[in-house]
Amino acid sequence: xxxxxxxxxxxxxxxxxxxxxxxxxxxxxxxxxxxxxxxxxxxxxxxxxxxxxxxxxxxxxxxxxxxxxxxxxxxxxxxxxxxxxxxxxxxxxxx
Length: 95
Known about the structure:
2 strands; 6% strand; 3 helices; mainly alpha; two-stranded antiparallel ribbon
């Protein structure tokens, strides 16, 4: 992923916010790593809510937002699958 002109020395300034592209890339990488390592649905939902608030507050490249959304959906699907497999393979105590 090459979000928002990664590596460009030109900073973004908007509404009193000053963020260099280099810092933005680090932020996006941190988001990716956080989503990929979420271990529970609750943690993933909290990360999703934080990202939604961030995206509503600041302007990000549409492709970066789309990538984070796809990654979030993939992680949710993986957590759903893991949960279903655990419940399928875990013997019921009532048996």
